[in-house]
Amino acid sequence: MILVVVSLLFTVVHATLDNRPTVKCCAKNEQIATVNGTVLCVDKTDARFDILTNSSEFLSKHSTGECVDIDRGHFYNYRVENGVITSNQTLSRKPFPKCCPLDHVYSPTTRSCINKTSIPTNLIIEDLVVIGLPKCQIILDKTLDASFTINRDSNQKDFCIDEDDKGSVMMRECQGDFDICQKKRCFKKCCPDGQSFVGGGVCKDTFVRGLQIKDQGYSPYIEDPEDDYEIVHGTGCTNVNIYSTNTLQYTITKNGSFRYYSNYTDEFVMEPVTDFTGYCLEHATKGSMSGYFLFRCFKQPEIEEKFAWTIGAKILSGILLIVTVLIYFYLGEVRNTFGKILINYCIAMFLLMVTLASSILAAAELECKIREFIKSPKKPICVAYKKKNLRRFVCYCLYGWGVAFCHMILLIILENTNFLPDLIQPRIGNLYCFIENVNYGRIVFLLIPYLAFQTANIVLFVKTAVYCIRVQNEINKMNDGLRRSESGRFVLAKDRLALILKLAVIMGLIWFTELLTTFFNNMESYSGFSKTLEIILDTITCSQGILIFIIFICKRKIFNMLKQKLGCGSLRDSSSPTPSSEVNGNIALTRGQTPVENAL
After folding, report:
1. What is the pLDDT of residues 255-285, one digit of tens each?
2. How far is CA 554 from CA 293, 320, 550, 558, in A?
3. Is this prediction's pTM over 0.90?
4. Cβ of 197: how many Cβ atoms within 10 Å?
5. Which is nearest to 380 in space by CA: 416, 353, 344?
6. Candidates 3.40.630.30, 3.40.50.720, 1.20.1070.10, 3.40.50.360; correct CATH number of 301-599?
7. For residues 68 and 518, which has the higher predicted lDDT (pLDDT)?
């Protein structure tokens, strides 16, 4: 226990600042550091340590004597000869535990520090000062009498002393348990005492932020925000997600519990204040964003388990997609329209696989919402046609990429505005990196567009198949002189249709398996069979590049063309025309567009 008893005033017992004999080696905003074996004065990085003195920069005076400074979180006494440090010794004196930096005092209202030009030198009984209580989770504030003393044998890491903004003396004391939260409501603060988020979800020493309960975006969802409270500091959550608006039905109750609606269980969940994997409040500064926000931790052990199985499929798919693109370019297959379309699709899928793999391997560096915006437009790129003329191919590219791009822009606009009813407002990146199943927004802006794109493709594929059948019937009525030319056109149409249907099967299978995965929301509650089924479906979804490589590269025609291109094939291999080359030769004998081209 910390002993606080009535005693003489500190002004009588201790010397004033003007009489302090301590000399600081470096300037006030500097500290000692060893750089490449040389002891130097560098900019101060240990904001939790300071020295109260009027005498500094001893090293720059090239004098001989002793000075004191900070190095790696410790106070040292340095022996100096002609401005050069010859030896050092750790100081055994216990530093004074001040709650705020030297030029600040404590504000019990905001639980933060505020600037004050004059340093309370009569309060500080030691030149060496440690600042704040960064290792304490629960800190209880107490107002002390004007005269007191401190038992110097107590553990000084458990408390700190400072003036408050009204001139009274405050002591902040660590609590060893959560008993105080049974008497008062406790709010959970993301960062340790004296720290806040700077430049993202990184806690740094700021001291002046504290915690604000009233007049914030989350205040309407706190029961009786005017009531007194305590703070649980530093929830230890490494990955947090900000809620800038009320995208989750939640309430912080009078007893400090966090009550929210779970989309996984379709019911309200009560999260106790001792649960450090839930919500927390914190001040955050990043770019133009600055203020107090409600954060949620990423609780993803089940996702990590699932991704451990699918990461290999993502990486292999990306590699094989690039190999497919390179082979098609090498063999000159991009000269026909289908080759161009396949290359476009492979590039789009490669970007998707890179995004998905990067989100697992380097999740901290990627914004969740950006990943969803990149993922969302991948499906409409699947439309494929076979026009040889450049103008029509450009139109198909504008359709495939343009529709996808417009879909992405629409999601970005809707995510950052609130003109839609909440019933269909798309929510992205609050619980997971996708359009969330919290309302009808997922159906309206994800499932319906994907279904429309896939339906349109199926209709066009069926149209092509019907036309090929009609062409075949017409060929049977032609004379022998025209049969070869028309048969060539039919073989060309049939060959291309087969390739298009293969690609359609791949994309349809992927869309179907991805649609099935939307029914899996809470992997933790599943049986072993359900977990295995979800992993299988996700693996199929991530294996699209593997399927494309098998269907379009792993076939005899491509192998023969590669052998011929590399000079490894026999004369017979290099001279024997493939069905496609024979068809292309037949088509070259005719003028104008083929019937298939006119049809589509």
Report:
1. 889 888 776 566 788 888 888 777 889 999 8
2. 53, 11, 5, 7
3. no
4. 23
5. 344
6. 1.20.1070.10
7. 68
